[in-house]
Amino acid sequence: GSQASFSVWIKTTTTTNGQRVLAKETSDWDAPFTIYTGGAGDFYFFTSKSAGGNAYCQVTFDTSGTNDNKWHNLAATVSTTTVTSYLDGIQKNTCAWTNGIKSSTENTLIGATKYTGSVNRYFTVAIDEVKIDNVARTADEIAEAYRAGRDHRISKTLGTSDLSARTKFPF
C-alpha cells in the first residue's frame, strides 16, 4: 500500500460530532483517509481498506483543550506498518496498519465530506495550511514542520532544542 502524511492547522472554540476537517470518503467505513471530530470534541484520523469496516485503523489526536480559539496542528502519517497521530508536533497515538492508503476516485474535500452521495458534515471553524504528502514523514520532520508553522515569524531566540538533529545553523 501507499504511504502518506497529512497536516492541517485548526482554530476552534467548539466542535460537533462528525465534522470533517479533511476527507476522502464515501461513508463512515469507506475512507482512504479522513480527519474528523468525535463526540467528546476530540479529533481522529481514520483510514480503511474496504467498505463495511472490515479493516480499518483509527487514532485519536488527544485534542482535549484545543477548543481554545488558538491555532493547533493535527498531523498523521501512514507508513508501511503504522498509522501515527501528532498534535502540535508531539506524537500521540499509533495503530498497526499494513494496508497503506487505498486508491479512490473520490475528491479530497477540506472542511466537509461527500457522505451518502452529497457534500455534508461541514467543519465550520478555521482551517489553514492543509498538506498531503506521498511519504510517511518522520517524527522529527513532523515536529520541525510544526515549529516552522508555529514560529514562522521567528520573534524569539532559537536554541539547539528548537532544531531537529538534521537541521543546524552553520554558525
Short summary:
This protein has one helix and twelve strands; from the N terminus they run E-E-E-E-E-E-E-E-E-E-E-E-H. The protein has one helix at about 140-150; strands at about 5-10, 20-25, 35, 45-50, 55-60, 70-80, 80-85, 90-95, 110, 115, 120, 125-135. The relative contact order is 0.24.
Write up what this structure looks like.
This protein has one helix spanning 139-150, and strands at 4-11, 20-24, 33-37, 43-48, 56-60, 71-78, 82-87, 90-96, 109-110, 113-115, 118-120, 126-133. The protein has 171 residues and is mainly beta. Strand 7 (82-87) and strand 8 (90-96) form a beta hairpin. The N and C termini lie far apart (42 Å).
Classify the beta-strand content into a percent band.
Answer: 35-45%
| Secondary structure tally, helices | 1
What's the arrangement of strands in the largest beta sheet?
Answer: 8-7-6-1-12
Q: What does the main sheet amount to?
A: 5 strands, antiparallel
Structural class computed from helices and strand pairing? mainly beta
- Average pLDDT: 84
| DSSP summary, beta strand count | 12
